[in-house]
Structure formats: C-alpha cells, structure tokens
Write a structure and sequence with these properties.
The chain is mostly beta strands. It has one helix and six strands.
Length: 139
C-alpha cells in the first residue's frame, strides 16, 4: 500500500529540500551608488506657436474661417503655416487647407499675434477648425 504513495511522497520531500535550501540562502545586499551630479537646468521655451479660430461663417456658397496665430515662445518665428480643417456637421473632415499666416521675410516676435483667414467653396461644410502646422526660427 505504501507503494501507491511513493511518487507523491518523493515530490513532497523534494519540495521540502528545495524550500530548505532557499530559506538558508542569505539575500544579497543591493548595491546603490549615489552620483552627485547636478541636473541640467530646464530648457526654457524657445519656439512655440498656437493657432486660435476666431470665426467660422458661411455666406452663400463660401465658408470663411478666421483666426490668430500667437507666438508663445521666446524667439521670433517666421514662415508660420496654419492648417484649416473643413468639417461636415457630424465632425467628419471634408478637406483641409494650408495658410501662410506669417510669410518669409516677416517675423512674429514673442508675445505677438497675427491674423489669418481661409475660404472654401466646398458643399457640405458646416464646421471649421485650425491648427498651427509649422514655423521656423532663424536664430
């Protein structure tokens, strides 16, 4: 009758021996090295531009979007492009456009705004949106 339990007894004995060896081992102490290096100073905002829509009006067949680009950075920027986004009433995009709000040779100084507008004759446009797409700084 003992032969029937020999396999299970062998497994239990092996587990107990393994547990005993595991408990007898001392855990290794973690080695922690402290580096006394100074953190680099946080970089100040150099270039950041935001586009804000101020109006979206449909007159007849033409829809017009108006807005402002703002230089929120610390450097003057040029060649600022804004994307106009034309949408249906359900929010799906019909088309997009590209506007140069600040052209080459013009500079938008820090803290300044520039007005822009775009129009479309697409049918089904009921909503508009804008986003600042790209800008350059020559500094």
């Amino acid at each position: 009758m003992l032969e029937r339990y020999l396999g299970q007894i062998a497994v239990v004995v092996a587990l107990l021996i393994g547990l005993a060896f595991w408990l007898m081992q001392s855990p290794e102490q973690a080695v922690i090295e402290l580096n006394e290096a100074e953190a680099p100073p946080l970089a100040s905002v150099r270039t950041r531009v935001d586009a804000v829509m101020t109006g979206c009006v449909r007159k007849g067949r033409t829809t017009r979007v108006e807005g402002l680009v703002r230089n929120l950075g610390t450097l003057g920027v040029t060649r600022v492009t804004v994307q106009s986004i034309w949408k249906r009433g359900d929010g799906s995009v019909v088309n997009t456009g590209l506007i140069y709000a600040v052209g080459e040779g013009q500079i938008l100084a820090p803290g300044e705004d520039a007005m822009f507008f775009d129009t479309t004759d697409l049918r089904g446009v009921e909503r508009c949106n804008v986003r600042a797409l790209d800008w350059w700084s020559d500094e």
